[in-house]
Design a protein that fits this description.
Elements lengths: L20 E3 L6 E4 L10 E7 L3 E2 L9 E8 L2 E5 L2 E5 L4 E4 L5 E5 L5 E8 L3 H5 L32
Antiparallel strand pairs: 1-2, 2-3, 3-10, 4-9, 5-8, 5-10, 6-7, 6-9
């Protein structure tokens, strides 16, 4: 572990009222960061509320593994050239080098919990810094999977 990634001390209880929901930067998908108030530099955990006919970014990571877990609805996840269907309470672990994209081609909202580690601090800085994001987005991150052909997402602001 590097000196910059120190473990937290003790514990942090996070209640639903503590969560701050906001639309994601590129795809405008509502999400809430569970760990932003804890100071954790070792892992990330977010709830993602995918509206019908929507998608998150197509991306990969440098170091982080991500665990995708469906809390409500039926999840759809593109990993490389494969499309996975993930039932409620099902999960998928994806390695850092795999291009992946959560999407929703159903008519009902889908709620995902996505946990990743180790946290990639350069990705969190994102739009606030001059960090090269091309390792995370080697292709157009806003492209939609074939299952959403003809859909316009993200919505116009």
């Amino acid at each position: 572990m590097s000196d910059s990634m120190k473990p937290i001390q003790g514990y942090h209880l996070i209640k639903p009222d503590d969560l701050h929901w906001r639309p994601s930067n590129l795809m405008r998908v509502p999400n809430a960061d569970y760990l932003e108030r804890t100071g954790s530099e070792n892992m990330g955990a977010r709830l993602w509320r995918l509206p019908p006919k929507s998608a998150n970014t197509l991306h990969k990571h440098i170091r982080a593994e991500e665990f995708y877990f469906v809390l409500e609805g039926t999840g759809r996840l593109r990993v490389g050239d494969e499309t996975l269907t993930v039932p409620r309470f099902g999960g998928v672990l994806v390695g850092p080098d795999q291009l992946r994209q959560v999407f929703n081609d159903t008519d009902a909202e889908v709620l995902w919990l996505i946990v990743g580690a180790p946290e990639e601090l350069e990705f969190l800085q994102g739009s606030k810094s001059k960090v090269d994001l091309s390792p995370f987005y080697p292709v157009d991150p806003t492209q939609l999977p074939k299952e959403l052909a003809g859909v316009e997402w993200p919505p116009k602001s």
